[in-house]
Write a structure and sequence with these properties.
The protein has about 250 residues and is of the alpha/beta class. The protein has one domain: Rossmann fold, CATH 3.40.50. The chain has 7 helices and 6 strands. Strand 1, helix 2 and strand 2 form a beta-alpha-beta unit.
Amino acid sequence: MNSVKRHVRVVAGLAMLVAAAGCSTVRQPVPTVTALLVDQSIVSPTMRAEMTTIIKSVIWRAKPGSVIEIIPVSANSTASAGGAVPFTFPEHSPMDNPLDYNAAVNAVRTAALNEAITLLSPSVAHQSADGETDLLGAFGAAASFLNGDTFCAVSDKQLIIVSDGIHQTRECDFLKIRFSPKENARIIREQSVNGQLADLRGVKVWVAGVGGSEASTVSPSQFAAIECFWIADFQAMHANVSPTRYGGTLENYP
């Protein structure tokens, strides 16, 4: 049995056990599960190229047997995430033919990268005429994937957000908010009341793409204030977050 079929059979079997026994009793043989969020609101070709480089580095570093789901950040991220399909990287066995195994890995890499590039294409970007960017909805979709029944017991869960970090909806536009510790606390309380705080416990967070090469309309002080808010917000979501993993590039990624 080749490594791809073997992995699918084992995961399918244990998924049934997890559903029956609960997350605390069974761990799936998945080393890492990753939600990779792709911000579709970026219109600059240069910044899209920078984002593609970041995404490629994540996909190319995926461990054997790991799973990555690519989730679009759009004007309605909850709806856009409905069609997302996880990409499972084949496990490696000493019995595998090296050429066949490498070909299988490269096939998954190529499919995942093509999916991300498609999401970044302006022709398929699901953004409204107002240019809204619903990051909070995307975080909810990521939480459903990472902490849902299938992968809730996996110990290494990652959320990688490839975005400038600017959430913009009619209800909450980051470019119109004067962030401060008091204002941050107010927004987070409001999110909690409205059920907008995703359950990201056990999830390690990276944010990459902030302050890209053509982000001149947003000042460094604005980006810094937005970063402070997100750090506090992720903490309220019980995520594993750190300023050392927030920036223009993929900082401190293994």
